[in-house]
Amino acid sequence: MLILRDLRRAFGSLQAVDGxxxxxxxxxxxxxLGPNGAGKSxxxxxxxxxxxxxxxxxxxxxxxxPMRASARRQIGLAPQELALYEGLTAIETLVFFARVxxxxxxxxxxxxxxxxVGLAPRGKxxxxxxxxxxxxxLNLAVALIHKPSVLVLDEPTAGVDPQxxxxxxxxxxxxxxxxxxxxxxxxxxxxxxxxxxxxxxxxQGKIRAHGTLSQLVTAHGSVQGTNAxxxxxxxxxxxxxxxxx
Amino acid sequence: xxxxxxxxxxxxxxxxxxxxxxxxxxxxFPLIVAVLFGMVFGRVSTPGxxxxxxxxxxxxxxxxxxxAALQADSALDVxxxxxxxxxxxxxxxxxxxxAIILPDGxxxxxxxxxxxxxxxxxxxxxxxxxxxxxxxxxxxxxIGFRQFMLAVTDSDRLGRQTIDIKRQLENSKDLxxxxxxxxIKLFAGAQxxxxxxxxxxxxxxxxxxxxxxxxxVRIRTEMLAQKKSEPPSxxxxxxxxxxxxxxxxxxxxxxxxxxxxxxQGTLTxxxxxxxxxxxxxASKGIACVVSSMIMQSLILVLAWFVFDVRPIxxxxxxxxxxxxxxSFTALAMMIAALFRSGGGTDGAGRALILVLAxxxxxxxxxxxxxxILRSISVVSPFRWAIAAxxxxxxxxxxxxxxxxxxxxxxxxxxxxxxxxxxxMARWRRGM
Lengths: 245, 431
Hints:
heterodimer, A: alpha/beta, Rossmann fold, 2 domains, six-stranded mixed beta sheet, three-stranded antiparallel beta sheet, 24% strand, globular, B: alpha/beta, abc type-2 transporter like fold, five-stranded mixed beta sheet, 16 helices, 68% helix
């Protein structure tokens, strides 16, 4: 379980995150939605221990703050960038990150990781030869290889084909069903609706609203009926229609 | 933690081994430089005056005259040392190409030129400058001939020598009476010539062709760093030069991998893992040290077994290689820490390394550099790396001297490490 308590972080005069509180329970997928510059990435960075908050705290329940190595072992991060080494094969990539996290590098564990994301047949191929969708799936496999109890996924389906997107969503739901606490940032309303148990809408460093999809649509959506339309309306109603930088 | 460090180091080495460009600049290019420059420098002479140090161990007019002739020669840049040991030390330190010793008994043997004597010269050479030493021997012979011509045209000396020879002939038991009589008549003529010339005060300049078969100078040459049987070669100079480029390649490869990690987001991923930033960089540093050691070993093994450049102190050489590898890793870390963007690290880092390598003797050996460039080269860690390798490889010198060279590069490494730690603290504050 992941708990964020009153997180604040400024960069110079810019208050990127301003009092964010959120919790993600076991077996729950929480979506973090918001326009560009809303503070989602800074929140994710603090949640994973990449940066320290100016104030507030992050807790991986049972393991403490994510600056601690033991807590970090519980976190699986899939950054928005395809953070992979193009010169390594898929197998070498998983073995490497498993070693970094002190996880098993047994052949079965690695093979299982590849099968989970549908890359077993390409395990010995270099990442540089993969398509965008394959890289995105491997990016997720890296986050999963050490069997974390908290998954933090930053735009996990950005720029991939519908098949890969569907596969990634299925994996996320399976991991949540297995007990993982999952925090997902996304711009994709359909994705948020399909995989998130709860959604938090962020803007200007603050959480403007959060709840289940139906709660948000009821409270902030002006258009009733279709869910897809409803969530987008919720977002626009909460964050405004002006273009962002 | 060690397990994780080695995982990162192994990953970096694996990526390096698959990067053809990095491999070329780390291994192939240095070898090309070493072999090509070795061939080229083996065929050229120095463009400027040759720096030598001269010692006259027994004061005498002929030795003084010979030394003065050396000093007057425009092809030589002569410094005078007080004794043989001092001169040898100057050469060992690479501050002169050779020590020319005019030993005890120089005048006595030079006086006996007409009776089988010759001017003795002891030459202690810097083996890295073997081509220049060949020229120096020719120059010594030329000066010897000039001295001989002076002896011939010095009527007092000519007179003394003919009297001395006449006396030896009279006492000789190997000659028949007819032979002795004929030769004595010959020298009587020479004595008469000497007397006439003294009276007329005329200088004799006519060349005697037969004298060119004669060698008035006996040179005993010793290469200081090659007390073993193998002769030095220009490859002993160019292979350390090749190592400079290999080190540049390793540093650039390290800087590039770090720049790529930052640009591709893999560094973010590593930082999210249960690893500290210092541990990540230390792990990458291990890869840099290992690749540097492998590169240096490959180049020196090739130098040894193919070009016969045998190290004179192998343990010291290995120690120097290790210190150099660690110090250049610190240099790479400093570059990585000073620039915040991946592009800045890569671009500016490459430019900096290139300039330092060239100034430090990577392109032109220090001995061929103009004095001003040689002075500037002290700022380059590559210069100190060359010095640290050359000592145990071929230059020799005392253990203290070799440790001093290695200490210099270690000091450079410490400074770079200190700066990189400061830069990384700035990094962390920005996180």
